[in-house]
Amino acid sequence: MNHFISATDVTSIQDLVNKGLQYKLNPFIDEHLGKGKRIGLLFLNPSLRTRLSTQVAAANLGMEAIVFNVDKEGWALEFQEGAIMNGTSVEHIKDAAPVLGQYFDVLAIRTFPALKNREEDYSEMFIKQFIRFAGVPVVSLESATLHPLQSLTDIITIQESLQHTKAARPKVVLTWAPHIKPLPQCVANSFAQWVNAWGNANFVITHPKGYELAEQFTNGASIVHDQDEALKDADFVYVKNWSSYEQYGQLLSSDTNWMLTNQKLALTNQAKIMHCLPVRRNIELSDEILDGPNSLVTQQAGNRVWAAQAVLAEILNTLNQ
Ligand code: CP
User: Do the Cβ atoms of 23 and 29 come closer than 8 Å?
Assistant: First the structure.
């Protein structure tokens, strides 16, 4: 694997899932794989899980990780080709990225969408500029449209839970949830892309009208606008808010009836409940769900380490060839 920004960068999702679960059983089996290698973790936006789990994963592989909070500590970056830099940006990505490529063997980058211009966000200009100019493998720590380390984690978590149930091909439901502000579509897009590519689930997406996601990611899933109908017999329910793709970046509805509660859980097949975190309690998900026995959210967040470790190992294996 050269870069990791999408499910399309992966040869076999199942192999990567299995690798992550192997690392969970034996974290230090490849403790020398990253010896002498260094990863730069660049954050243009905040993070708790992605930052720390990737640092732990790198350490498990004997790789040094250095975090750089570009948004707070770096020069303001310019990404536009041909920009006359007489505004707030100080350094062009064409100049910064090759320097970073000299310091690091792998670069990992978090860069959220601005949610103002759909074409610009969906062109993934920021992360693609790093790939173009850094000259080293690039890992997405969440980009404008996708969050692949999260999605790999999510499938690892589903697979892990399936080992304790009889459901061979689970019903997995991605449900929109209310939120107080417009959020990116990344986690939902990415989950849809990965579950569809994995191919081992009956996959349903439910949301109010107007919250349709980009078809390039949802193709293959059933779309149901009645949440109660979608939840029937679900084995896993993934709860997430996202802003409108059609009316780009807008918050169209805050309908509290879409919050997942124990009453909704009763419609399912005692479904396991997932969320990428951070979560707005009693807005997206009720306390009773998050604190109850069906919640996988802490286990899921813990699995971020094994997903990151599986991905970094793949990249290190390619570098070491
Ligand atoms: N789920 C997730 O990406 O968490 P952070 O934003 O804390 O990294």
Answer: yes
Read off the tokens for 36: 């002498």
Q: What is the pLDDT of residues 248-275, one digit of tens each?
A: 999 998 899 999 999 999 999 999 999 9
User: Helix-strand-coil percent breakdown of the chain, rounded to 5?
Assistant: 40, 15, 45
From the alpha carbon of 142, which atom of ligand 1 is closest?
3
SS (H, E, C) 265-317: HCCCCCCEEECCCCCCECCCECHHHHCCCCECHHHHHHCHHHHHHHHHHHHHH
SS3 202: strand
The arrangement of secondary structure in 149-301, i.e. its CATH architecture, is: 3-Layer(aba) Sandwich (3.40)
Structure tokens belonging to residue 75 = 């020069």
Classified by CATH at the fold level, domain 7-146+304-319 comes out as Rossmann fold (3.40.50)
DSSP state string for 71-102: HHHSPPEE-STT----SS--EEHHHHHHHHHH
- 202-206 and 272-274 strand pairing: unpaired
* Pocket mutation for ligand 1, best pick of 238, 276, 299 (most atoms within 8 Å of C-beta): 276
Q: How far apart are CA 161 and CA 159, in angstroms?
A: 5
**DSSP structural state of residue 171:** E
User: Which pair of structure tokens corresponds to residue 268?
Assistant: 């399912």
Each residue's pLDDT tens digit, 63-102: 999 999 999 999 999 999 999 999 999 999 999 999 999 9
Q: Whole-model pTM? A: 0.97
Query: Of 49, 153, 157, 189, which is best to mutate to test ligand 1, by the most ligand atoms within 8 angstroms of its C-beta?
Result: 49
Give Cα separations from 265 to 14, 158, 286, 293 (angstroms): 29, 17, 11, 12
| Strand-strand pairing, 222-224 and 202-206 | parallel
d(CA 108, CA 308): 11
Res. 166: pLDDT tops 70 = no
Q: Is 47 touching ligand 1 by the criterion CB < 6 Å?
A: yes
In the chain, domain spans: 7-146+304-319, 149-301
